[in-house]
Amino acid sequence: MCAIGKVQPGVFVTISATFRFSPLLRRFGSRAFVLGMALDVLSCSSGAHAESSKEGGRMKALPTKAIEDAQRLGEAFSSVAEFVSPAVVSIRIEAKRTQSPFPFRFFGPNPFGGEDEGDGITRGNGSGVIIRSDGYILTNRHVVEKATRIEVRLQDDRRFQAKVVGMDAATDLAVLKIGAQKLRAASFADSSRIRVGEWVVAIGSPFGLDYTVTAGVVSAIGRGGIGANEIEDYLQTDASINPGNSGGPLVNLRGEVVGINTMIVGRGTGIGFAVPSSLAKHVTEQIILSGKVRRAWIGVGFQELTPELAKQFGVPNARGALVGSVMNNGPAARAGLRAGDVVVSVDGQGVKEGRDLLRTIISKKIGQSVKLEVLRNKERKTFTLTTEQRPDQGGAAAGSRQGRAPAAPASDEFGLQLQGITPQLAQELGVKEAGVLIARVTPGSPAERVGLRARDVILEADRKPARSESEVQRALSDGTALLRIQRGEGSLFVVLSKDEGQP
């Protein structure tokens, strides 16, 4: 039998990393943990790493370089935890019971990670990190957005009522303030220098278990297209996280914050996401300064250039950001950009996908001149414009069902039910162009598979105005059509084929 000595704190950290952290945010990438305890066991059972003592025949483990390296790694995890934990806080909230609007769950059955009480109040928990010694704390917006009462608990067990300084929906970040001074504030790393495979440690309060530490690696950088927030530039990690970890820090082995843990993939294991530290720092500074975030804006709605769309627009390498809509009287409209243009570079910097364009524009100063290179009908054109402050955006009106014209029969091939738009319905939907309403989308149909929805308005079919249902049906008669649709206040392009999704 092998006797195992006292397990060091660092070993516990590495072991805990084999479990999953938060349901809302499955963060973080590949994990290749060398477990000190496991190695000790193996060293006891392997003849290559053990020798027989003359005293009682007891096996004695021999030190090896691998074991020493694992022990040093464990010590590093322990040191990081001890160094950063004083800057981590536990957040307790109360809120009126409500349905969470978030498809990505950090906290289980409700958006706060607690339980729905019989008094109509939801009580739950999250995490945060101290960013200034005078009581400013960074967390996730979804942790505190609906809260009627927020309590912050420090590592030394002091408790404070917190107020919300400001929130940013685009990044799901929020800043809180408590009445405390001389606090230990965390340091933020430059997230642009983070490398895939780098060790990271997550600290937070999963299920109310304060100051839980887990470890993993950065699995990927620049993750987007998740559909959780408007600005998506996430670090992906496999550090174990669970409900209640949202808003807590993800730190490197130097003890610097590299990200704010934000969400997990609902069905994933070890797939979580964190807002990068540089973006979080920029948002935080603006919220503390003015209570909100001011961003540069050029007045375009863009979408990713899929291979199908690239073929339609004559872009051979499918690289660029497709302009789906141009806002009236915005910088882009005044410069001459049109829906259907493909932005391939900004100030000489190549645009691989739509997120590249967004990241580049929001990094600009308001009032800064920007040069865009676009493809239009396979020809390159250059436009120079000046960024403006992004206007406040209201949500699209849900509207009523009054004033609708009779619906056309559904298409069995595409799964679309179309109807004309009356003047009353056009006003309700905010439609300023000619168009045809999608009244219904058949579940499992080609239309549903390409993302079309009821209450989308078809503005163009094969780059021609869609004035009637018959014009849309005519464009679809060949089996495939390029549609430009209005959704809310913007528009986008969709390639609809009756064979969509078929093998």
Summarize the topology.
Layout (H helix, E strand, L loop, with lengths): L8 H8 L19 H10 L4 E3 L6 E3 L3 H20 L3 E9 L18 E2 L4 E12 L3 E5 H4 L2 E7 L5 E3 L1 E6 L4 E5 L9 E2 L10 E6 L7 E12 L10 E4 L11 E3 L4 E9 L7 E5 H14 L5 E2 L2 E5 L2 H7 L7 E6 L4 H5 L6 E5 L2 E2 L3 H9 L6 E8 L2 E8 L1 E2 L26 E4 L3 H7 L6 E6 L4 H4 L7 E5 L2 E2 L3 H8 L3 E8 L2 E8 L6
Rounded to the nearest angstrom, the radius of gyration is 27 Å
Q: Report the principal-axis shape.
A: elongated
Number of helices: 11
How much of the residues is beta strand, in percent? 25-35%
Class of the largest domain in CATH?
Mainly Beta
> Which CATH-level-2 architecture of the largest domain?
Beta Barrel
Mean model confidence by pLDDT: 80
Largest sheet: 8 strands, antiparallel
Integer tally of domains? 4
- End-to-end separation: 58 Å
- Give the helix proportion (percent range): 10-25%
Catalogue the unreliable spans.
1-54, 100-113, 394-410
Which fold name is given in CATH as the topology of the largest domain? Thrombin, subunit H
Number of strands: 31
Q: What would you say this structure looks like, in words?
A:
- It is built from 11 helices and 31 strands.
- The protein has 503 residues and is α+β, with helices and mostly antiparallel strands.
- It has 4 domains: 9-21 and 30-85, no CATH class; 22-29 and 87-293, Thrombin, subunit H; 296-389, Roll (Pdz3 Domain), CATH 2.30.42.10; 416-497, Pdz3 Domain.
- The strands form 6 sheets. Strands 3, 4, 5, 6, 7, 8, 9 and 10 form an 8-stranded antiparallel sheet that branches. A 6-stranded antiparallel beta barrel has the order 12-13-14-17-16-15.
- Strand 7 (147-153) and strand 8 (159-161) form a beta hairpin.
- Helix 1 (9-16) packs across helix 3 (65-84).
- Residues 1-54, 100-113 and 394-410 have low confidence and may be disordered.
